[in-house]
Structure formats: C-alpha cells, structure tokens
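As described in the Methods, two query proteins were run sequentially through the folding procedure within a single session, without resetting any intermediate state between them. The first query and its resulting structure tokens are shown here.
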Amino acid sequence: MEQASQTLLLVDDEAFILTALKRLLRRDGYHILTACGGQEGLQVLAQTPVDVIVSDQRMPGMTGVEFLRQARTLHPKTIRMVLSGYTELQSVTDAINEGAVYKFMTKPWDDEHLRANIAEAFRQKSLEDENQRLHDELENAHASLVQAHAQLADLVRQQQQRLVQDEVAIGVSHEIFDAVAVPVMGVDDSGMLVLINAASQRFFTGAVPGIALQEVAGLEQLFSGFPPASKEVCQTLHTPDQDWTVRYTRVGHGALGQGGLLTFIPAGVVP
C-alpha cells in the first residue's frame, strides 16, 4: 500500500551528491528534502514529517550514525538508510546497531539498485504504517467493546434493581389489596375473574381466579352482559346475607389486556 505523499530526506555534506540524487529520484514521484549535514537534517525533521532518510556517513560535525541515532530517538517511525563510500566494517556495524539502519548502501551507487532499495524502504514504511493503523483500530474497537460491556453490565444491574423494587412493590400491593375490608375483584373483558382479595373469598366462597363471574354463586344476577357499556357503572346486588352496591370501573385503557375492577360496597354505606 503506497502513501499519498512519500517524503524522502537526503543528507550529505557534498552538494553535487545531493543534486545527483535528486535528479535520479525525482522520476519516482517522491517529495524530496535535502540537508547538508546532520544538524540541518534534524532541523528538517523537526519541521516536516519524513518517511525515509538516506544519509551519508562521513560528514563534518556529526557523522551519519550520530545523526541517525538522534533521528531514531526523535522520529522512530522513519526508515533510515546509509549511503556512504566509507565501508569500514566498524562504520557499518555502528550504523546498524546505533542508528537502527534499514540498509547500508555504498558509493558509487548503481542507479537502478539504489532506486529499488529506496522504493523497498517506502514499501516497508507503508506496511508499518498500515500495521499501526490496524493496531490502533483494534485498540479502539477493544476500548469500545470494554465500554459497551461496562454499559451493558450497568444496565443489567439497574434492571435487576428495578425488578427487585417491582417485586417488593407488587408484594406490598397484594398485601394492601388483601387488606381491603370489602370484596374487590378484577375481571377481564370475557367476564373471567383474574384477581380477588381475601374479603371476596369470605363473602363469595365460589369466587376464585380463572372462573367466570356468572358461575359464582350469588353473582349470577350481576350485569347481564360483559363488559358493561359504560366505563363506570353501579348496580345493586341482593344476596341472602347482604345487599351490595357493586361498582364496575374500567381499567387497562390503551393496554393489551383490558378489564375492570368490581368493588362491593355494603348497602347503606356511602361509597
């Protein structure tokens, strides 16, 4: 994968070498920068991102190895190469060990061999950049996954807390419902009892959830049809032991399950 802009820095204390290299490499489409020594090369690196460096070894003031050592510290992602006529073994060893040099090439150079080595260096830089990009994406994806997991765990905790609170609230509601002194029954639109309190069981022994209202002894005369046409309606109910005012209140508006609440108020008691 090639970069949109490939920047090459040439460092050599001999101007004619820089001119020859620029002439040779211009055809390859690189953005070419030059420096006449190591110090000037560091100044260029401080101002402009560079992909590949090609440096001479023997330069006054700062050797190529010294320059590349500092370049490696300040800009570790650059690909660093040496192009030098100084082929002493120690120089090659120092350049590789201290400057983290990608390749050591000698002067005089073969044009095509030099171009091929520099092109390979840019391919290496592109590969490293792509690897870094993929690594960063994986890190970001992992961080996002960790965050999503934490958010999901928090939602689960909140849901569990709500369930516990709902269970407590339902338990309290049932206790309150059972504590009501008069019979109260919940009935669906088919006329089936779905909920009754303790008072309902005392006064109407046949009343149990799951049985039709009209099948409960004493309630046969209650409402000729179900559900009543009105949202709230009252009817007098006569039983052997007690006369009642029965109030039907429609509940469950807008819900999937709808029905009503029957409240039995002893006759003579103002509801």
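Immediately afterward, the second query was submitted; its sequence and tokens are:
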Amino acid sequence: MKYENQPQIARPLGQWLGEAWQANSPKFSQQTQLVVVPIPLHPSKKKQRGYNQAALIAQSFCETTGFKLKLNGLERVRETKAQYVLSASEREKNLAQAFGLGRDFRHHNPNTQVLLVDDIYTTGATGKSAVQTLRQAGIAVLGLAATAAALKDQQTKNSSAT
C-alpha cells in the first residue's frame, strides 16, 4: 500500500479492522466517547507519498464502527528514519519525542478515550511514543489497532539482513 503507491488498499483494510473490532470489542458502542487517532506522518513524508496510510485506514475504520475520527490528534514534529531499516532498540530511539499534540486535542475532553490506528505493528516503538505524548497531555489511550503485525522471526531476519 505505502511503498507501491496503492492507497485504495486502505479502504478494505480499515473496513476489515472495523469489523474485527466490532466482533471482538462488543463493550464499546458508538455512545462510548472513543475517538480514533491515526499515527501521523511527518509533513515532508506525507508530501512525498501523497497520503498517510494510517489516516486512510482510520477513516474507513470509523465509517465501519461509527467512532469519531480525529485526523489531527497527533502531529509528527520530528522527521524520523524509516523504521523497517532499524533494529528494535534503534526504532525506540528514532521515535523518541517524534510526536506532539495535534490541533484536535489542544482543547480536549478529558473523558475522551483514544484508540490509535496504524498500518503495521512491529516492535511497538511507534505506539509507545504516541501513547507517551497523549498521556503527558492527560489524554487516556485505550490502545492501538493495526492492520498487520510483523512476525518475530521475520523481524530478526529483516533486522540482520539490513
């Protein structure tokens, strides 16, 4: 989707993620003050790619679940290296303080719970950094939903191959 310029793949991925969420999280209804925040790209990366894959997935997820989307809940304030070329420890350092509070949360509702959405979960470094930014602002984070997760064996092979 993101490396071969196929943004249309995000729609069915977001719908599938939303259906999986509904099937496995029945306690959360549309009345729950849950808002969805996609993991942001740095503006230069978004300009280069033309879209944020996590935002497209999150939009489709929200269309399926009925949850409110906050496209600007977070912003990427520091340009980072591509994660796939880094080891687990390098990923965490790469993302330290990479996010800031976006304009959607500058006047947030403290009773709001956030669900972060990303395209892929590998080591958790991206989510950890995003959660830390939101929690420092007093915003509760329910968790992170992703459309794919890297297998541990593949991570090791990929890290040692680069």
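The domain at 7-161 is CATH 3.40.50.2020 (Rossmann fold). We note this only descriptively and draw no conclusion about the first query from it.
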